[in-house]
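hey so i finally got around to running the thing on that chain from the lab meeting. sorry it took forever, my laptop kept dying and i had to restart like 3 times. anyway pasting the input first so we r on the same page abt which one it is
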Amino acid sequence: MTSYVALLRAMNVAGTGKLPMAELRRIGEQCGFANVRTFIASGNLLFESDLGEAEVRARIEAGLQQYFGKSVPVFVRTAGELTATAAANSFDDDKPSRVMAHFIEEEPVEAMLAEARDVVGERMALGPRSIIVSYGEGIGKTRLKLPAVKHGTARNMNSVAKMAAMLA
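ok and heres what got predicted. didnt touch it at all, straight out
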């Protein structure tokens, strides 16, 4: 069995993306996954499955489509990939809560970082299917525009490290 995390885009504890964690666990269980659990109320589903990544994603997306009546982007990573993302954080001089891993579908390339606009103190690095950004003063104050992550989802490095440990 492979340990996975599914990172849902635009999930939170209130508003249009509200999804109770019990409901997310239920969706994971209905998909036939084992050892299903969630981590904080921001759309993180941890589980085990013998299925490949594409089938895992398809099943979760179908369950979310049924629940919400609309498509919800899902980014699936193995335990190893999540651990590699945590290890790719070269910004250990910043608070982990101010460093975000922006998960995207493809492997990033340097050209993606070159497209960044309104960079004022933010630092960026490539990770495995992610772009890691140190926000220094905090994400709430940034004006950074990074087109490569527009359709991705982000988690701070505290959360990435904790989920990697939970999957280990």
